[in-house]
Write a structure and sequence with these properties.
The chain has about 260 residues and is of the alpha/beta class. The protein contains 8 helices and 10 strands. The protein has helices spanning about 45-55, 70-75, 80-95, 110-120, 135-145, 175-185, 210-220, 245-260, and strands at about 5, 25, 30-35, 60, 100-105, 125-130, 150-155, 170, 195-200, 225-230.
């Protein structure tokens, strides 16, 4: 937690956002791609993923999860149930737009939400990037002291990369909601029947690497499970140094899964 400050409020926090943080939708063909950002993030974090999917002709939707892209105090008012509702509403929007097959791709908490959507809805495939099935110890510690210090704030840094837009801090109480979402996912992973693609950075500073093993053990009825590790990326792989390579792998998963369906 070096460099973080433990605070009782988000007073004094500088929020720096551009229009790229807003929900994104592009109508393409009948194959839909729901792209979900992570805890404290925004759709800007997922641009590297959804832009190639859009270019390939797919319909893409990257919603802004409740309480994100505004203030930490706002985010603190929302819960796991709200974010799951957001994800399911995103899936429904793609159905209403005429998509007959839907892929769900998520980063971090968005990966957990993607898995939960795949447990509850008919999906053509699901991509789980940096899924926090098990969080690093310092985040569990932050949650344990959240009754005293509900906000953990990073020193402000000028936004130089629009794709990195998100809160420079954490509403620590809401880390418990990630744990609840993860428990929900683990409970019913055997309901996922579509192909699954797990992407995990080896330098992830927020997720324990054994999260991948837990996912693989639970996905007993998935049509297939593919795993891809990246050696030089942090937790936010979609806006890290290997973002282009990651995006290529996601696009290839969707294209190859579609090709297998037709063959």
């Amino acid at each position: 937690m070096f460099g973080y400050g433990f605070k009782s409020s988000d007073k004094g926090v500088i929020y720096e956002f551009t229009d790229l943080r807003k929900p994104y939708f592009h109508r393409g063909n009948e194959v839909g791609c729901l792209v979900l950002h992570g805890f404290t993030g925004t759709p800007a974090n997922m641009r590297s993923v959804y832009a190639p999917l859009e270019k390939a002709g797919y319909t893409v939707h990257a919603p802004l999860l409740s309480g994100h892209g505004t203030t930490l105090a706002d985010m603190n008012e929302y819960r796991a149930s709200d974010w799951l509702s957001d994800a399911l509403a995103g899936y429904q929007k793609l159905r209403e737009e005429g998509c007959t097959r839907i892929y769900v791709c998520g980063l971090s908490m968005g990966a957990i939400l993607s898995g939960l959507v795949a447990e509850r809805r008919d999906c053509a495939g699901v991509v789980l990037m940096s899924a926090p099935v098990r969080m690093q110890g310092y985040l569990n510690f932050a949650y344990s002291i959240s009754p005293l210090f509900p906000y953990i704030i990073l020193p402000h840094k000028e936004l130089k990369d629009e794709e990195r837009q998100g809160y420079q801090g954490i509403p620590a109480r809401r880390l418990g909601d990630i744990r609840r979402l993860s428990a929900m996912l683990r409970k019913d992973m055997d309901k996922v029947t579509c192909p699954v693609f797990i992407i995990q950075p080896r330098k992830d500073n927020r997720v324990k690497l054994n999260s991948v093993d837990i996912l693989v053990r639970g996905l007993v009825h998935a049509r297939s499970v593919k795993i891809q590790y990246f050696d030089n990326s942090p937790h936010g792989i979609t806006y890290g140094p290997e973002r282009a390579e990651n995006a290529h792998e996601v696009l290839n998963f969707v294209q190859s899964t579609e090709a297998d369906r037709i063959a």
